[in-house]
UniProtKB/TrEMBL annotation:
Record's bilayer topology term: Multi-pass membrane protein
Organism: Nocardia rhizosphaerae
InterPro entries (alphabetical): ABC_transp_perm/SBD, MetI-like, MetI-like_sf
Annotated PANTHER family: GLYCINE BETAINE/L-PROLINE TRANSPORT SYSTEM PERMEASE PROTEIN PROW, OSMOPROTECTANT IMPORT PERMEASE PROTEIN OSMW
Keywords on record: Membrane, Transmembrane, Transmembrane helix, Transport
One Pfam family named in its UniProt record: BPD_transp_1
Protein name per the record: ABC transporter permease
Main location per the UniProt record: membrane
Length: 216
């Protein structure tokens, strides 16, 4: 523990920078994945065939090993942030897309009919009624995706991606040296802590944006 604490104290500035880059990459990827997944979900949720095809495609992407996906992206996007963000967005799609389809499909038809009865057009109905009612489900998918890509981002060090993965890879590559284990362990623990912190932020977002009647 003394070696671990000494390492954290001596590298605290670099650890802060790496943690910031890790969270930044996850948040950016999550926002992009949410936009894409919700748009696709809105387009396909009324079609059982379309919904099945979209979720199957997103599921197929999720089965591709992260090293393999990064390796396929590097020739087109190079090393660094580009392939990292694209890979994270692709991996984050399935939970958000599936929950978007489920949330929109679960909206009470009586509510939809009542909204149409007062003159709401399709776009107004979607933005004012269906998406707000589906938001708890969408947010739950975002929470799942956040936890998932938090860990996957560590592997992006293979493609020179940002974040704490570089710390872990560097430590593992120097096993046997005095700081190797503290370095890898620090990176791992920080990823867990940051994942829990982001999940807490999303829970708070849910409490602020989901009406109590829906939340309860």
């Amino acid at each position: 523990m003394d070696a671990l604490w000494s390492f954290v104290v001596s590298r605290r500035e670099q650890l802060f920078v790496d943690s910031y880059l890790h969270v930044s990459a996850v948040v950016q990827s999550l926002l992009l994945a949410t936009i894409v997944a919700v748009l696709v979900g809105v387009l396909v949720y009324r079609s059982p065939l379309g919904s099945a095809a979209a979720t199957a495609t997103a599921g197929a992407i999720l089965t591709v090993p992260s090293f393999a996906l990064l390796g396929l992206l590097i020739p087109f996007l190079g090393l660094g942030v580009g392939p990292t963000i694209v890979a994270l967005v692709l991996y984050a799609l399935l939970p958000i897309l599936r929950n978007t389809v489920l949330g929109l499909s679960a909206v009470d038809p009586a509510v939809v009919d009542a909204a149409r009865g007062v003159g709401m057009n399709r776009l107004r109905l979607l933005t004012a009624i269906e998406l707000p009612l589906a938001w708890p489900s969408i947010l739950a998918g975002m929470r799942v995706s956040t936890q998932m890509i938090m860990g996957i981002l560590a592997l992006a060090a293979y493609a020179k991606g940002p974040g704490l993965g570089n710390l872990i890879f560097s430590g593992l590559s120097r096993l046997g040296s005095p700081n190797a284990v503290p370095q890898a362990l620090t990176g791992t623990v920080l990823i867990v802590v940051l994942a829990l912190a982001l999940d807490g932020v999303l829970q708070l977002l849910g409490r602020l944006t989901i009406p109590r009647g829906i939340r309860d």
